[in-house]
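Predict the 3D structure for this chain.
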Amino acid sequence: MSRVVFDISLSLDGFVTAAPRTAEQPLGPGGVQLHGWLVDHEYLERAVADLGAVVAGRTTYDHSIPGWRADGPSGPARRPVFVVTHEAPEAGTVPEGGVYTFVTDGIESAIDQARAAAAGRTVTVMGGADLGRRCLAAGLVDELSLHVAPVLFGSGTPMFAGLDAGHVALELLEAVGTPETVHLRYRVVRPDG
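Done. Predicted structure below.
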């Protein structure tokens, strides 16, 4: 069965965007620094090699589609993307021949569809803090993959504030430091083992 990994970049003080966010700067002032690690092509190639499918929130989709276009975040690999949303976009606004499926019946359905499409490879939940918190609270996440940027924002969108999952025990699987980020990978420890 596919493992589900919540993958997100954040500041050292735990924010996934800086404040204030605007249409011109959806990550807030200086927020692009969170993704400075994307220059590490070897790390990206390793991640995409095992990627079977992606689950993203609607805000992430809306902000990213100009760069992703029809291929999605995996680029030429064209892995399927399941976008959790209350309402699918209007016809004609989605790139023709795109990899996107819009899921309007909840995160559990999106994860189930992504697992089926992934065929045993990794399902990555990416994008916003809200989707990640909801997936963690629902017990749908097997691992956390955090990319911690060397910056303090002081305010913005907090990653874990308001997490409605109670105590979540984690086991460190990997820690890799680069000048742009520290990659941390944790297994979610289930109470039943």
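The mean pLDDT is 92.
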